[in-house]
Design goal:
The structure holds two protein chains of two kinds. By secondary structure, chain A is an alpha/beta fold. Helix content of chain A is 33%, strand content 25%. The radius of gyration of chain B is 21 Å and the shape is globular. In chain B, strands 1-2 form a two-stranded antiparallel sheet. In chain B, helix 1 packs parallel to helix 12 and helix 2 packs antiparallel against helix 10. Classes of the chains: A alpha/beta, B mainly alpha. At the A-B interface, helix 10, helix 11 and helix 15 of A face helix 8 and helix 9 of B.
Chain lengths: 499, 334
């Protein structure tokens, strides 16, 4: 029997360990009916692990989950749905070749004589669609909808199972301002109807507007909790990163030197008709912000010779260049730390030494084409020391390293070439806090030595902290440029969404 | 290295047991014969090993052996072309075949299996057509050329034993291939792209060129093998000469430690792999095992070798995870 005073959902001292990482340590959480609870934390803080436990994807090692005051096992995603817990994932899980109605009832299709009852789907779906404020027919194919509308379809799907607990993971990360507002109206409406909502976001402005309470996780532990009137930007950031804001900003600013890279009217194959122009100076760290799909990775790939531009020119050191392959870009002094570390950055089955030396073998060959083994040994040892790569020896296969150490191997590979221009694509994605700091320090150091750094990041904190200058991209265009004086979360978001 | 020791152990085991059961096995004539055939198949196997290391496959080797094996006597005997030009022409044809495969696979992005399967059919058909399906041979002439395949060099201070010339050819090729693979940057490129072509490309490696090179080496060695096989056999049926040789070559490469997933392999292992196949074949003959069982036995031995290798690998992996607590400690930040 549910006690009247017990919360809708309670997480009691839940712990979870993955090989090599304590993802959660005695985490507690309480969610009331009719409440929006913000769950905050940096990448790797344990938010996604906690969500997976609530959604039945993972089982906790220790601790209790209570729903309406009763201890509950959430053994599988199906069990979570039966308990009224719905998870709306950052990457939408819709079959975009099917209609809105078919998606809402996917896997639970109402049947008539053993066949799908399409009439009932259409009828039930339209009422759900109306509830989430969506103005489309249930027969519309999902791929015709915008990302924001698809997000609402996911919510409708959650409502169709009478979810009482709705977990939303960064729901606005790819929405425009307008779509975000529409989503907020729906969230507030659901709250009014007694649904408990766990809202995960990196956008602190949204949290401030929406949340009744905020719980902050850091390194897998409860870092603190803020009540509605306590929620402000500085307090949230302080809890998330665990130290004062003053020490968080970038300390030194560099005096940029000569222009080393210039792109003029560059048209990438991903966004035909959109021309990009910008310049990069020696000793400068330039951030590229924007939403997923804004064309940032595609820009780096064209700069690095992975893809050929449709038109436009690239100049390196004042001289126009044409890159037919990454080989040419590397020769010109460029380096790219790609977004997909495992597919593009590393040969996972090879050793640290082999990976670190892969790009510079031809620079240090003894006679034509013969490898210089002593240089390889030396280079690997230097990289391990300089980058603080944690491994027993340089013959360790990189597959066995942690994400942070793998990323250091990728960086080490390029540092051997002393690049003039370093392109970084999401350089700290999926690596732990300590390694992150080391990557930042390295970027500063390289800029101090005169390298030009262009880095793409979806983490605003990172952009705010690291960039001397920020280019913001929106739908394949550079929608604005912000210097340090004008750089703020709001300014970036405004340019990134063009709302 | 461990893999090579494993296959060496298998070779020794097969040799010792055959020698124990048959007095003829260690006779000079028999050993020279096995060495010759091991060398001929070894040349093909080294070629296909390069392709397998890139993660590709070449199914056309047998047909290339057939085509070049027919082409050489046809040019010499029926067209009266001089030996040097004939050899040059045949090697040129193999080169063109390798380039064609490489082009179709890297530039047209076709799958190696499909490209070389079509090659298997095409070269065989072409050889049968231009010879009119008639048996080719050198007759009693061209002793100088045939010395390359049937010649025997006396071993100094060891009377009664000779080294077959094909062994010297194969050994030279093997040494060159091993140096290329282990000592040069290109060997490293080949292994890297075999594991992860995209990462290799992002590291500035001309992956297309390297893959082309692998197919080129493979076809050239198949062509050379074709020439030597024809000189050795001297009676070449266009319809059947070289049939299944690609499978022998692939099997030897796999036995010798190449993974069909790419990025792995040792030249010495491949040569030993070729030797295991030939010794098995020889043992079947010497021991009076019905020759109909030949394929069955070879297939079983290869399968057993691969299973054994996989088990050893898993055991090593398990020992590694248990033995390295460094992996399990959380990062310093926690």
């Amino acid at each position: 029997m549910p006690a009247p005073s017990s919360p809708l959902l309670e997480v009691r001292r839940v712990s979870k360990r993955y090989p090599g990482v304590q993802a959660l340590r005695s985490v507690c959480l309480r969610l009331e009916a009719g409440e929006v609870l913000a769950l905050l934390g940096e990448n790797g803080a344990g938010k996604s692990t906690l969500m997976k436990i609530l959604a039945g994807v993972q089982r906790p090692d220790a601790g209790e989950l209570l729903i309406d005051g009763c201890t509950t096992e959430i053994a599988s995603p199906d069990a979570a749905l039966d308990l009224g817990i719905a998870l709306i994932h950052q990457e939408l899980n819709l079959a975009d070749n099917l209609s809105v109605g078919a998606n809402i009832f996917l896997g639970r299709e109402p049947r008539r004589f053993g066949l799908i009852d399409k009439r009932r789907i259409a009828r039930d779906a339209s009422s759900l669609i109306k509830q989430v404020g969506l103005d489309v027919s249930p027969n519309t194919l999902v791929h015709r909808l915008s990302i924001g509308q698809q997000q609402l379809v996911e919510i409708a799907k959650a409502l169709s199972v009478n979810a009482r607990i709705l977990i939303m993971d960064e729901p606005t990360s790819s929405l425009s301002q307008h779509e975000t507002e529409a989503l907020f109206r729906v969230v507030k409406d659901l709250r009014g109807r007694g649904v408990g909502i766990v809202y995960i976001s990196h956008r602190l402005g949204e949290v401030k507007e929406l949340a009744d309470r905020a719980v902050v996780l850091r390194d897998g532990e409860n870092a603190g909790e803020l009540q509605r009137d306590e929620i402000d930007h500085d307090r949230m950031v302080r809890l998330m990163i665990g130290r004062e804001l003053a020490g968080f900003g970038r300390r030194q600013s560099h005096t940029p030197g000569e222009i080393v890279l210039r792109a003029s009217n560059l048209e990438t194959p991903a966004n035909p008709g959109r021309r990009l122009s910008f310049a990069l100076k020696a000793g400068e760290i330039v951030g590229v912000a924007g939403l997923v799909g804004a064309g940032r990775t595609e820009l780096l790939q064209v700069l690095f010779g992975v893809d050929r531009p449709l038109s436009g020119t690239i100049e390196v050191g004042g001289r126009p260049v044409v890159f037919h392959a990454p080989h040419d870009a590397i020769r010109a002094g460029l380096a790219l730390v790609p977004e997909d570390r495992k597919q593009q950055g590393l040969v996972l089955e090879m050793t640290i030494r082999e990976n670190v030396c892969l790009a510079s073998l031809d620079r240090y060959d003894r006679a034509v084409g013969f490898r210089n083994r002593s240089h390889e040994r030396q280079a690997a040892a230097d990289s391990i020391r300089r980058l603080n790569i944690k491994a027993p020896h340089d013959r360790q296969v990189v597959r066995l390293l942690s994400g942070g150490n793998q990323q250091k191997v990728v960086l080490g590979k390029w540092l051997l070439l002393k690049p003039r221009v370093l392109l970084l694509d999401e350089p700290t994605r999926g690596i732990d806090v300590g390694a992150k700091q080391e990557v930042y320090q390295l970027m500063e150091q390289l800029a101090g030595e005169g390298a030009a750094i262009l880095f793409v990041s979806s983490e605003l904190e990172e952009i705010l902290r690291m960039s001397d200058r920020t280019l913001v991209m929106h739908e394949g265009r550079i929608s604005g440029e912000l210097d340090r004086a004008r750089l703020s979360e709001e300014a970036v978001m405004r340019l990134a969404t063009r709302g | 290295m461990k893999k090579t020791l494993g296959i060496l152990g298998l070779l020794i085991a097969v040799c010792v047991s055959t020698a124990a059961l048959s007095p003829n096995f260690l006779k000079a004539y028999n050993v020279e014969n096995i060495t010759t055939w091991t060398s001929l198949f070894g040349i093909l196997s080294i070629g296909v090993a390069f392709v397998i290391m890139t993660g590709g496959i070449d199914l056309s080797i047998g047909s290339v052996v057939g085509l070049t094996g027919c082409l050489l006597p046809w040019l010499l005997v029926q067209k009266h072309v001089d030996p040097v030009s004939s050899i040059a022409l045949v090697m040129l044809v193999s080169l063109a075949i390798g380039l064609l495969h490489g082009f179709l696979i890297t530039k047209m992005r076709l799958q190696p299996f499909v490209v070389t399967l079509c090659g298997l059919l095409f070269y065989r058909g072409f050889a049968r057509w231009f010879t009119g399906d008639e048996t080719q041979g050198f007759g009693n002439g061209f002793a100088g050329l045939r010395y390359l395949a049937v010649g025997r060099v006396p071993i100094p201070f060891v009377s009664g034993w000779h080294l077959p010339v094909p062994f010297l050819i194969m050994a030279t090729i093997a040494v060159a291939a091993a140096i290329f693979l282990n000592q040069t940057i290109y060997g490293r490129y080949l292994l890297a792209l075999g594991r992860n072509e995209q990462a290799a490309r992002y590291s500035g490696i001309h992956t297309d060129r390297m893959i082309m090179l692998a197919y080129l080496i493979c076809s050239l060695l198949a062509g050379l093998g074709g020439i030597l096989f024809s000189l050795e056999i001297n009676s070449i049926q266009p319809s059947g000469h070289g049939d299944f040789y690609e499978l022998y070559a692939i099997a030897a490469a796999v036995l010798g430690g190449c993974s069909l997933r790419g990025g792995e392999g040792s030249i010495l292992g491949v040569v030993i792999g070729a030797a295991v196949m030939r010794v098995l074949y020889n043992a079947i003959n010497l021991l009076g095992i019905p020759t109909q069982l030949e394929f069955a036995i070879i297939g079983m031995v290869i399968l057993a070798g691969v299973i054994f290798d996989e088990l050893v690998k898993r055991l090593a992996a398990r020992r590694r995870t248990v033995a390295s607590p460094a992996q399990a400690t959380p990062p310093a930040a926690f």
